[in-house]
Amino acid sequence: MHNPPIRHCTACGSPVIYRVPEGDSRPRAVCPACGHIQYENPRNIVGVIPAWGQQVLLCKRAIEPRYGLWTLPAGFMEIGESTEVGALRETREEAGAEVALKGLYAVINVLPANQVYFFYRGQLTQPQWQAGEESLDVQLFHEADIPWEQIAFRSVAQTLQRYFADLRAGHFQIHTFDIA
Amino acid sequence: MHNPPIRHCTACGSPVIYRVPEGDSRPRAVCPACGHIQYENPRNIVGVIPAWGQQVLLCKRAIEPRYGLWTLPAGFMEIGESTEVGALRETREEAGAEVALKGLYAVINVLPANQVYFFYRGQLTQPQWQAGEESLDVQLFHEADIPWEQIAFRSVAQTLQRYFADLRAGHFQIHTFDIA
Ligand SMILES: [Zn+2]
Ligand SMILES: [Zn+2]
């Protein structure tokens, strides 16, 4: 789901050039034929930490990248949905699970990927889940059983570390951090 | 800075069609010639609530939309920067001001615009500012003097309302809400 460099104008199909438009400060894909400027911006990944008691529900990835590694249910935020609605959708799609959201937990800038992650805390409404098309397996883990060496993304590993630390401390706070 | 509907493939310039790709669940701009899929996602607006004592720094817009109305310094997050770096950049560009960030304050889903706003609290490092190219004026306001009827965006008005309520209460918390 990565967009490659823009070569043609989305409005008219002509080849674009990269230049700094008037009144702007950085190069954009500008169409010399029709004048359209195509902007590129970072994208949001929305997901949930689905909890059942002291345990957290993880998904084993059935897709690249990081096939076979474990992750929290999360994916690209779509046009027309809020971050919360997107997080619930991804939990349904990847883990076949329903959660009650308990608030925003982590906001992470993943700079190498030009992505911003949003993780919400969620309470499973019942101990029920099912691997979706993008998951090989879905499983509850106590902190002691988390496969730390097989977590798919640093954003997920660092979120889980903070989550279990907060769980042990007995209170949750919002975490904002960057991954460079 | 709004992207119109995608009509041509950014990779090869051929006309695209909207259809649901295999394994996907919603229509995308698909290129029948080269197979490229162009995804569209919500975009982030990053900004600051610049504080000087009990006062907040607002900018009078010199650009459309909402020319002549007041707003917090904020703008589109750019490729290659974090939400924090983008918020500092916008404060510099629009208000000519330097702030020390004091943490994430508001995360707002503005659904009609497909935008997510991030507002950080900021402390002006000195009582100094200057209207940038996109501002007609920049001014400090006490709560009692905020021109509520001339605030450019609902996201900004609702953030300022929460901010001053927290200021009166003596403690700040993160606010997450939707504007439908
Ligand atoms: Zn064009
Ligand atoms: Zn193409």
TrEMBL record, chains A, B:
Pfam families associated with the record: NUDIX, Zn_ribbon_Nudix
Domain of life: Bacteria
InterPro entries listed in its UniProt record: Nudix_hydrolase, NUDIX_hydrolase-like_dom_sf, NUDIX_hydrolase_CS, NUDIX_hydrolase_dom, Nudix_N
SUPFAM superfamilies registered for this protein in UniProt: Nudix
Gene3D superfamilies linked: 2.20.70.10, Nucleoside Triphosphate Pyrophosphohydrolase (3.90.79.10)
Keyword annotations from UniProtKB, A to Z: Hydrolase, Magnesium
Signal peptide extent: none
One Gene Ontology molecular-function label: hydrolase activity
Start and end residues of each Nudix hydrolase domain: 41-164
Cofactor: Mg(2+)
Family: Belongs to the Nudix hydrolase family.
Name of the protein: NTP pyrophosphohydrolase
Organism, as annotated: Thiomonas arsenitoxydans (strain DSM 22701 / CIP 110005 / 3As)
UniProt lineage: Bacteria, Pseudomonadati, Pseudomonadota, Betaproteobacteria, Burkholderiales
